[in-house]
Amino acid sequence: MSTTHYLVLSALGPDRSGLVAEITHYVTERGGNIEDSRMAVLGGEFGVMMLVSGTGDEVGRISGDREKLQASTGLDVTTRSTKSPEEHRRAQSIPCVITCDAIDNPGIVRAVSRALHGLGLNIVSLETTTYEAPVTGSPLFRLEAHCDAPRGVTIAKVRASMAEVAERENIDVEVSAAAR
To answer: Same domain, yes or no, for 50 and 26?
Structure first.
């Protein structure tokens, strides 16, 4: 009986067409299954983080051959063994989503993340983007954080804490319960 093993593969380097196809081919050619991933172009750099599953031999090949992936893509590739997602996430936690919108200014991510940390929330994923306001063209900022609130921390408590951050940082904040 084979046990499922998990590996995080991350890669970063100059963006060009075809990188997603090359990386996913590399993983599946060695027997790996992509469980979860985040890929984005930031500036002129392409970044990938993916959770890969497979047998011990399969994830071993993916990790052991990473120099081949680096040579073919020009990306800096790192791999690390990890736990299964179910094993890592707290069963007793409440998933929630925090969304913030504001005029773009430094310190919003810091203020939100520090408040969430103060409540004991675990940030599962966080994404930010800047965009232009429809009429004025002013730079706007949007943050979306998916979090796990530990036992004893209610959504109401998260909302109250985020309301303080919203007042202090002059941002609009929405907190909602989320499905896993």
So the answer is: yes
What is the DSSP-derived secondary structure letter of residue 85?
Answer: H
Q: Cβ distance 35 to 42 under 8 Å?
A: no
- Under 8 Å between Cβ of 144 and 106: no
Backbone phi, psi, residue 14, to 5°:
-60, 135
**DSSP conformational letter for 60:** H
Secondary structure class of 63 (helix, strand, coil): helix
Q: Which residues pair with 54 in a beta bridge?
A: 5
Note whether 34 and 72 are same-domain residues.
yes
Question: What are the pLDDT digits (tens) for 17-74?
Answer: 999 999 999 999 999 999 999 999 999 999 999 999 999 999 999 999 999 999 999 9
Residue 86's identity, in one-letter code, is E
- What residues make up the domain containing 146? 94-177
What are the Cα distances from residue 157, in Å, to 14, 24, 57, 135? 43, 41, 46, 35
